[in-house]
Structures are given as structure tokens and as C-alpha cells.
Amino acid sequence: MERTGAQQDPEQEPEREPGQDPGKQEDRSTRVTVLVALAANLVIAAAKAVGGLVAGSPALMSEAAHSVADSMNEVFLLAALRRSRRPADRRHPFGYGKERFFWSLLAAVGIFVMGGCFSFFQGYEALRNGADETFDGYVIGLVVLGVAFFAEGLSLLRALHQARQQGGLSGLRDPALRTVIAEDGTAVLGVTLAAAGMALHMVTGDVVWEASASFGIGALLVFVAYHLGSQARDQLIGEAADPEADRRIRAVLSAQPEIDSVEALFTMKTGLDSALVAARVDLVPGMDSEQVEEVAVRIKRSLANTVTEADQIFLDITDRAAQETAESPAATGERGGA
């Protein structure tokens, strides 16, 4: 017979260690990083647009579109930082953590449409109609690109410094910070491509170099947009918790003397630092209903204390004897825990 499935009771939830929430501290640092990137991109976008119009440079206009797209995306990321920390309510019982992934997906779409597609258009127009640039135009364009390279480089260094504080690029969890790093890194490469295209156009007189730079910037932006969008998509549709968190959950369950075996374990990220945990476990024989209830509460308390991101814990508690005597939905895995 299946034992009662147990859901974490807010009244029985263990008290966490007092102190400041590290997630909120990281959010404040990320917000500063995003604001630095936004300020840099707004100034650079205006300078590139003016320089591109004066110089008649398609590569510089592509870079202006790139900076406008980055500025819009940083507004999306600021919205993500604010909205994702709202507490759970009746309509959204698992909280608003996935807002972070949604706005990051919109940022990826913005990079693709506003940056990548416009860059391809500028390259095509340059090949079709040509581009008349004066020597003064070249000088203005290259100066603007030099200033942009310096500003984007500073913003990138700020974002990389924060990433190192959070464990390095390989373990970076925050999609907002990941997007800023991708945008700033792409911007530095884009400025380099644009400068190379303008310089070769100036030396050879052939507009194909600047058109090629626009196409290269567009391809770079499309690649980055696809990569960021794929990550946000996986998180939105229900990505499992990190392997390390999964390992710690299994270790806690396996260490409980009342658990005979862990039949199934499912996890899903519900936010940047929160996850849902659902486990189906077999208890040792001979326990009555009161003991099962006490064991369930203690197991959930152990999980919550050991795996801090496990803020929603569901247990489906069965026993081996029941599984061996009846083919119930719980035994066959056709029905999950409550």
C-alpha cells in the first residue's frame, strides 16, 4: 500500500541561517554591471549613429544598430532583475524566478532582430549601392570606433570581474550577467571587424571590405543570439537542477537510515537560485503511519538545510512490500507524489 505523499509544509519549514541573502547581493552587483553596460551603450550608440551618417559608413551603421540592440536588451535585463525576486503568490505558487529566463530570451531575440538582421541589411545595401566616404569620414569613423572599443572593453572587464567573483565563466548561473558578457564580448569583436573593414575600404577603395565587415558583425550577432536563446529556452521549459545539486540531494536521501532505496528523483529549476525537488523513496518495512510522517518531515528538513536551492520539496513515500504485492500506479511510476 502506498504511504501518504508528503509536501513541504511552510509551517514546518526549517529556519535558514540568519543573515543577508547572497542572491540579493549578487543581484545588486549584477544590476550595477548592467547599468554600466547600458550607460556605455547609449553613449556609444549615439556616437556611432552620428559618425556613421557623417562618414556614410555601412559598417559603422551596423555597429550603431548593434549598440541600440544592446541598450534595449539591458533594459530587459533590469526588468528581469526586479521582477524575478517577487515572492510567490496564489497565482504563481512557485514564485517568479523564471522571469529572469523569459527576459533573457527577449534579449536574445533583440540581438537577433535589431542587431543581426540590420547588419545584414547594411552589408547588402553597401554592395548594391556602394558607399561614398571621404578621408575625413574615415577619420571620424575610426575615432568613434576607438572610443567604442575602450568603453566596451571597460564594461566587459567589469562583467568578467563579477563573473570571477561568482565562480568563473564555466559555472556562471545568472542569465543576466551571462548576456552582458556575451554582448560586451561581441561588441569588442564587432568594433574590431568594423574598424578593419573601414581601414581596408580606405586603403583599397573597394566597398566590399566594409560590406563584408557588416556581414561578419551580423553573423556574429546571430550566433550569440542563438546561443543565448537556446540557454533561456532550456531553462523556461524546465531544466533540471545542476548535477552538483542532484548529487547532494541523492547523498542526503541515501544517508537516511529509514530509506531503503530511492526509486526516482526529479528536479527542475524554478529560478536562479531555487529548484523544485520530487523524489519517490522506499522505506524500510515495519513503520507505522506516525513514524512515516515524522520521517518525511525530517528528510525534508535535511534536504532544505543541505541543498539551499531546494525551496519546494515533494516526497512520494512507499514501501517495498507494497510494491511487491500489487501493481499500483505508484509502483509502476504512472503517478507522482503529492
What's the β-strand tally? 4
Structural shape: elongated
Task: Give the helix level as a range of percent.
Answer: 55-70%
Largest sheet: 4 strands, mixed
List unreliable stretches of 5+ residues.
1-20, 322-338
> Proportion of β residues?
5-15%
Distance between the termini: 15 Å
Q: What is the radius of gyration computed over CA atoms, rounded to a whole number of angstroms? A: 27 Å
Structural class: alpha+beta
Number of helices: 10
Arrangement of strands in the largest sheet: 1-4-3-2
**For the residues shown, what is the average pLDDT?**
78
Order of helices and strands: EHHHHHHHEEHEHH
Report on this model:
This protein is 65% helix and 10% strand. The chain is an alpha+beta fold and 338 residues long. The longest helix has 34 residues, at 22-55. The protein has a four-stranded mixed beta sheet.
Task: Write a brief structural summary.
It contains ten helices and four strands; from the N terminus they run βαααααααββαβαα.
List the helices and strands and how they pair.
Elements (H helix, E strand, L loop, with lengths): L5 E2 L14 H34 L2 H26 L15 H31 L5 H31 L9 H30 L3 H29 L6 H12 L4 E13 L2 E10 L5 H18 L3 E10 H6 L3 H4 L6
Parallel strand pairs: 3-4
Antiparallel strand pairs: 1-4, 2-3
Key features?
alpha+beta, elongated, disordered N terminus
